[in-house]
Amino acid sequence: MYEKIFSKYTPERENLIYILHDIQDNHPQNYISEEAVAAVGKYLRVAPAHIYGVLTFYTMFSTKPRGKNIIRLCESPPCFLKGSDKIIAKLRELLNIKVGETTGDEQFTLETCACLGVCGNAPVMMINEDVYGDLTEEKVAVIIDKLKGEKL
Ligand code: FES
Q: Best mutation site among 115, 125, 132, 135 for ligand 1, i.e. most ligand atoms within 8 A of its Cβ?
């Protein structure tokens, strides 16, 4: 099952992060399973404990199944000062989940993160690869509505 991904990388430790990204991006639930860790460990001849160390160090990886849309709201000080707490409250209300949870229909996972590097547009969030800045509660409601519509 992972052979197709492995075939793109030589079996060297330096490729670990790239392989993990590839596996996560290609999993419909956006995560790295225990089975994947075992397969990667075997391919790179790296102990699973080392792989879990990497997975827990980098917040973009998840070892739990997640939704189709991963929402990552920045909660670093510049975004906080511009009201990221109100934005997270709005997201929680719209999605009816807490930070770290996934909606029952598996469409959205809500996470927080550190600075996304676009503080000039604070508050900021990313949904999958897309960055949304200058957020207001109204703007967030429109974005989420649009994504909910795309599910159909
Ligand atoms: S502090 Fe939020 S993007 Fe930099």
A: 115
pTM of full prediction above 0.85: no
Summarize pLDDT for 39-65 with one digit per residue, the tens.
Answer: 999 999 999 999 999 999 998 899 999
Q: Which residues contact 2 (CB under 8 A, 6 or more apart)?
A: 23, 36, 39, 40, 43
- pLDDT of 37 > 70? The answer is yes
For residue 89, the one-letter residue type is A
Question: Looking up tokens 């949304």, which residue turns up?
Answer: 132
64 lies in some domain: no
CA 79 – CA 121 distance, rounded (Å): 8
35 within domain boundaries: yes
Mention every residue, 6+ apart, whose C-beta is less than 8 A from residue 75: 84, 88, 112, 113, 114
Please count the structural domains in the chain.
2
Q: Is the CB of 76 under 6 A from ligand 1?
A: yes
Give the CATH number for residue 127. 3.40.30.10
Contact 141, 90 (CB under 8 A): yes
